[in-house]
Amino acid sequence: MKLYNTNHTFAIGAYKESPYLEECVQSLIRQKKKSNVILCTSTPCDYIEQVVKKYQLPYYVRNGQSDIQDDWNFAFNSANTDYVTIAHQDDVYSEYYFAELSRHLPDEEMSLYITDYLPLKCGKAGPRDINSKLRRLLRTPLKVKRFACSKRIRKLTLAFGNSVCCPTITYNKKRLGSTIFTSKFKFCIDWDTCLKYAEQDGHFVYVDKPLVYYRIHDGATSKEFIEDHRRVSEDIGMFRKFWPEPIVKIIMIFYKRAYKTYG
Question: What is the dihedral of CA 227, 232, 238, 241, to 10 degrees?
């Protein structure tokens, strides 16, 4: 695939034989404004290599046991650009994602660029479920630039739940460094990472447009973490970073309702 003269890369994290990988690749190479696309994996197989060959993608393989955090850091560091979007293999990107992002670049003070999204279920985008509605509501203050520059407000948008959708985020490597994912969690990595950077200098950029279609399906990691109760444990651990135990228990009563998205 042709390398483009842009300071941004979509780094696809591929895992085993996802039936949705090719659709994700197609959405990235069909961007109205072209950007670089690479594919990274810790589970090389014939299927992934066939997709790489078909679309002539730069291909990076991480040695060692597959691990979400290590795989994301590897994908992030494999990109040779300052701005990196870690694309999830199951999801689909609007053809205007990079065109919209490029309107905000370069921005050396920006830590994270975040967009709205729509759930993608049974091959159709939307309507919004309770999870996406809640996340969008929590992100509302970030539409105001003054609030997006405030550590206190950024932290507040994360205090009542995970307001971010990981595949929508673009990271500024020049500002954040090389190893950006350092969370002790496995499921709440994105939430914990956003909190880390919410508490640091710099600012977020939030675009309230659904530029990613987040696929909900039986094989999703999110459903796996719900079924074996690891999500509950990690969500509680995140809320404890903001609230005392009695308030955490109250919040979780309502927060668990968002799990029905995968029911």
Answer: -170
